[in-house]
Design a protein that fits this description.
With about 350 residues, this protein is an alpha/beta fold. About 40% of the residues lie in helices and about 20% in strands. It is built from 11 helices and 13 strands. The structure holds uridine-5'-diphosphate-4-deoxy-4-fluoro-alpha-D-galactose.
Length: about 350
């Protein structure tokens, strides 16, 4: 039986596809390459030594997606990554985000029901919490008004999945693990897959590695006057391969009903600490300067990941130094390729 991975050529999707194949799962990838490249699929095959079944599909296209289920014939569960993820772009084009992220999830649920597939792992984000009142944040924290249309689509999709579950009476019932990611960083240790730099990176670590490699002049630290120990914002950064492993754990331990899980390390790290850690881990200087605050940034957030540890039997194991070394190796390989 196979797992359908939507967005399987993307950053989290590609690492998860590798982890699934290495755990013995049969993987079927769908992707439309709107934010990824076809060669990533070859790299997944290179790392795992297995061929990957693939369909170039937009998940919003119900008929085509349904044909994938019929054609593959053995899809038993789905991991749904395929979505747009740029916070800034979502502010500019909210309709596009609603159509793709919410529309795509609705179509997927419909097609799954039609084909009798009842297990779903959904890619969500800690953005659903906004700036929580209590840190570390656990899954009982309420959704605060979304900081961006992107955040709104994640909240809405979680609600749609929950509603869908209460209306579905499959033979063994609909089951879904909703995974709320904190900040994934790094790349596969092979240096063959990682986050693709399509456009100017918005996220800290890709911007940092591009700056160190000379592609950008300076990393701007968005504010050093926040009420945190060193004045810069705090996040919970986890290695992308740990995050990928969490999806395998979620499939193996899929809850009954719909249940959210925080995926993070449980530790908060500031922007300035990431810069210092990168220098220590790679011995490379990071040219940076302090700039103004970025609009909409959350001051500090980190996870209480204890539910995932208890119920999914998953824990982030890799260090942030390892993640930064792996991110740097990936950047150097990209530089070599251009
Ligand atoms: N930062 C900088 N300079 C940069 C880029 C980022 O100082 O050039 C800082 C940000 O201000 C923030 C931290 O680095 O304090 C992390 O920023 P990211 O953009 O890497 O990550 P965010 O936590 O802001 O956003 C991420 C995802 C979003 C998601 C959000 C919450 O990118 O998609 O987590 O889940 F919505």
């Amino acid at each position: 039986m196979a797992v359908l991975v939507t967005g399987g050529a993307g950053y989290i999707g590609s690492h998860t596809s590798v982890a699934l194949i290495e755990a013995g799962f049969e993987v079927v990838v769908v992707d439309n390459f709107c934010n990824s490249k076809r060669y990533i699929l070859d790299r997944i095959e290179q790392i795992t030594g297995k061929s990957v079944r693939f369909y170039k599909v937009n998940v919003c296209d119900e008929n085509v997606l349904s044909k994938v289920f019929s054609d593959a014939g053995d899809i038993e569960s789905v991991i749904h990554f395929a979505a747009l993820k740029s916070v800034g772009e979502s502010v500019e084009f909210p309709e596009k985000y609603i159509k793709n992220n919410i529309g795509g999830t609705e179509v997927l649920l419909k097609v799954m029901a039609h084909h009798g597939v009842s297990k779903l792992v959904f890619s969500s984000s800690c953005t659903v919490y906004g700036q929580p009142e209590t840190i570390p944040v656990d899954e009982s924290a309420p959704f605060l008004p979304a900081e961006s249309p992107y955040g709104f689509t994640k909240q809405a999709c979680e609600e749609i999945i929950t509603k869908h579950s209460s209306h579905t009476n499959g033979s063994e019932g609909f089951r879904s693990a909703i995974l709320r990611y904190f900040n994934p960083i790094g790349a596969h240790p092979s240096g063959l897959i990682g986050e693709l730099p399509l456009g100017i990176p918005n996220n800290l670590v890709p911007f940092l590695t591009q700056t160190v490699s000379g592609l950008r002049d300076s990393l701007i630290v968005f504010g050093d006057d926040y009420p945190t120990p060193d004045g810069s914002c705090i996040r919970d950064y986890l290695h992308i391969c740990d995050l990928a492993d969490a999806h395998v754990a979620a499939l193996k331990n899929i809850p009954s009903g719909v249940r959210p899980y925080n995926l993070g390390t449980g530790k908060g790290v500031s922007v300035l600490e990431i810069i210092a850690d990168f220098k220590k881990a790679t011995l490379m200087e990071v040219p940076y300067e302090i700039g103004p605050r970025r609009k909409g940034d959350i001051v500090q957030i980190w996870a209480d990941p204890s539910r995932a540890e208890k119920e999914l039997k998953w824990k982030a194991l890799r260090s942030k130094e390892e993640a930064l070394i792996d991110a740097w190796r990936w950047q150097q390989n990209l530089n070599g390729a251009t």
